Amino acid sequence: MFYTCGPNEAMVVSGFCRSPPLMIAGGRVFVFPCIQQIQRISLNTLTLNVKSDKVYTRHGVPISVTGIAQMKIQGQNKQMLAAACQMFMGKSEHEIAQIALETLEGHQRAIIAHLNCGGKD
């Protein structure tokens, strides 16, 4: 059975004769029913609003920061696509965005904690 996907999607074929699994970003593939399975992952760009309220800097000054980040799974780089499939396969775009947002919030808080705002230098 033939399957196709658009340029904003990748397919992963696993099962019989597919070790490691075959990853196709924006293309088509033949899948043997019952002995192989196909999964899809979105390659759409996600925009995330990263907010950190009242994070204390190195000198104890509370700062609130809002940042915007855009995230995209790179479909043409096979290593990056394989890593993204390992982490995000079977998850919706909302779940992927939530995981990325929590990671970015943690990094943003760590950066703010090392700032020298309002202190004696």
UniProtKB/TrEMBL annotation:
Alphabetical list of Gene3D superfamilies matching this protein: Band 7 domain
Cellular compartments per GO CC: endosome; flotillin complex
Entry keyword annotation includes Membrane: yes
Domain Band: 6-116
Matches recorded under Pfam families: Band_7 (PF01145)
Compartment(s) of residence: Membrane; Endosome
GO molecular function terms attached to this record: protease binding
Family, per entry: Belongs to the band 7/mec-2 family. Flotillin subfamily.
Subunit details: Heterooligomeric complex.
Protein name: Flotillin
Species the sequence originates in: Oryzias javanicus
Organism taxonomic ancestry: Eukaryota, Metazoa, Chordata, Craniata, Vertebrata
